[in-house]
Design brief:
The complex is a heterodimer of chains A (227) and B (191). Chain A is α+β, with helices and mostly antiparallel strands. In chain A, the strands form 2 sheets. In chain A, strands 1, 3, 4, 5, 6, 7, 8 and 9 form an 8-stranded mixed beta sheet that branches. Chain A has a two-stranded antiparallel sheet with strand order 2-10. In chain A, strand 7 and strand 8 form a beta hairpin. Chain A is 26% helix and 31% strand. Chain A is globular. Chain A has 4 helices and 10 strands. The N terminus and C terminus of chain A are likely disordered. With 191 residues, chain B is α+β, with helices and mostly antiparallel strands. Chain B is elongated, with a radius of gyration of 18 Å. Chain B contains 5 helices and 6 strands. About 5% of the residues of chain B have low confidence. In chain B, strand 5 and strand 6 form a beta hairpin. In chain B, the strands form 2 sheets. In chain B, strands 1-4-5-6 form a 4-stranded mixed beta sheet. A two-stranded antiparallel ribbon of chain B has the order 2-3. Chain B starts with a helix and ends in a 5-residue tail after the last helix. Classes of the chains: A alpha+beta (227), B alpha+beta (191). Chains A and B meet through helix 1, strand 3, strand 4, helix 2 and strand 6 of A and helix 1 and helix 4 of B.
Chain lengths: 227, 191
């Protein structure tokens, strides 16, 4: 047990100090939003924005403070929501984004209760599952339009195979940003398809970019491909 | 041990798990919805102080050597700001209101003992609602949480800090959904 602890501490320290030895991956099930799935709004309406980051379903103030600017920029980049505020605007509209991060304790089970997820090679693979619940209220008292999306971020250290179907990110933070942006893109554009969403129309195929980004291409920046 | 990596990954992925001061919790989506489900006029937030029982740990306290502090400078103030943020997000905050909520932090404890479900945190406060200077509500409320606590400090300390910080939102939600509090807040007349 103690040797595992020492290995973990050393490995984690090395991973932090030598990021080249550590890799981050994201699942490819969602990918970038397709042009034909996008919506556009001529006059985006202002909305109150509530962002809450949870870890194991408990509010995490530090995580929320860190991720709120990322989410805010991603929302702005969709062009579907106008100015956002912490308090309710006159129109009563509200957009809430709840992110819950959970490690895969259940998948690893007791076999890994005391140590790493060692595979055939020598290293560590860890999975963090993100569930994002996006809810939009067009006006105070109106029924919310809600979408729930799930993604996985995989962190690897050392010489070990990762599960199939993953795309390597430039860094852990870039991987997280890509996940968040894709979830916001898919969730918000899907919400905009709801007839109750104000003033949204489908982006005409003719006006879509001739060379849409690859479905699974990693993003260089959080807001790069949302418009 | 695996949790060490998880802690580091989460820390990196969310920008840091250092022992920096705790920011005021965000407006809880669940709590804001709960506030909006009942009608009461906007409230003002008065002073929040520490009870003598917790005064020695109101500014900071240690979890296995990690020093926990709040951006507000005190944990009693942290409780007041948490409440203020929830009310503001729900459109129920009015500094000029004749209904004022004040509080006293009475319970504030964290144990990061090693073992399954051995980590424990508790938070309690006495809340008072005065209307036009007269007391309309006073109640002691407490919340708690337990979790599996690692023997590795790098895992246990952030976990304990996170669990403790989360209790502020839980306690405020308990106040704002308390039937007695709601009944007291709904009354508007000063007489």
């Amino acid at each position: 047990m103690r040797s595992f602890a020492r290995v973990a501490i050393v490995a984690a320290a090395v991973a932090a100090a030598q990021p080249a030895l550590a890799s981050a991956y994201i699942d490819m099930e969602m990918g970038e939003i397709k042009p034909e799935e996008k919506m556009t709004v001529a006059a985006p309406q202002p909305a109150q924005l509530l962002v809450e980051f949870q870890r194991d379903a408990a509010t995490n103030p530090k995580g929320t403070k860190q991720i709120t600017p990322i989410i805010t920029e991603d929302i702005k980049a969709t062009g579907l929501i106008g100015a956002t505020s912490e308090t309710p605007p006159p129109n009563g509209a509200r957009l809430s984004v709840l992110i819950n991060a959970v490690e895969d304790k259940g998948l690893n089970g007791k076999a890994f209760a005391a140590g790493f997820t060692f595979g055939l090679g020598s290293g560590v693979v860890d999975n963090i599952y993100y569930t994002m619940t996006i809810s939009y209220l067009p006006a105070a008292g109106a029924p919310p339009i809600t979408r729930t999306l799930k993604r996985r971020l995989v962190f690897k250290y050392g010489n070990i195979a990762v599960p199939p179907g993953l795309l390597q990110a430039k860094s852990l933070m870039e991987g997280l940003k890509t996940l968040m942006r894709q979830m916001i893109d898919h969730g918000l554009h899907d919400i905009a398809h709801d007839p109750a969403f104000p003033g949204a129309t489908a982006v005409a195929a003719a006006t879509a970019p001739a060379t849409a980004p690859s479905a699974d291409a990693p993003a260089a920046a959080p807001a790069a491909a949302s418009n | 041990m695996r949790r060490l990596f998880v802690a580091i990954v989460l820390a990196l992925a969310t920008g840091g798990c250092s022992m920096g001061a705790l920011p005021v919790p965000p407006a809880s989506i669940k709590t804001v919805s709960a506030i909006e489900s009942v009608q009461f006029p906007p409230l003002a937030i008065g002073s929040f102080i520490a009870d003598p029982a917790v005064r020695d740990r109101d500014k900071s306290f240690a979890i296995r050597g990690g020093i926990i502090t709040a951006e507000t400078g005190s944990f009693a103030g942290y409780l007041g700001e948490t409440l203020k943020r929830q009310l503001a997000a729900a459109g129920r905050l009015d500094p000029a209101s004749s209904s004022v909520v004040t509080g006293r932090l009475t319970v504030s404890s964290v144990s990061s003992a090693i073992g399954a479900n051995a980590g424990k945190a508790a938070l309690g406060g006495e809340f008072t609602l005065t209307r036009c200077g007269k007391e309309a509500f006073r109640k002691q409320l407490e919340v708690g949480q337990s979790w599996d606590s690692s023997f590795i400090g790098a895992v246990a300390i952030p976990a304990a800090e996170s669990a403790y910080a989360g209790l502020y939102t839980t306690l405020v939600e308990k106040l704002l959904t308390d039937p007695d509090f709601i009944a007291a807040a709904q009354a508007t007349a000063c007489s």
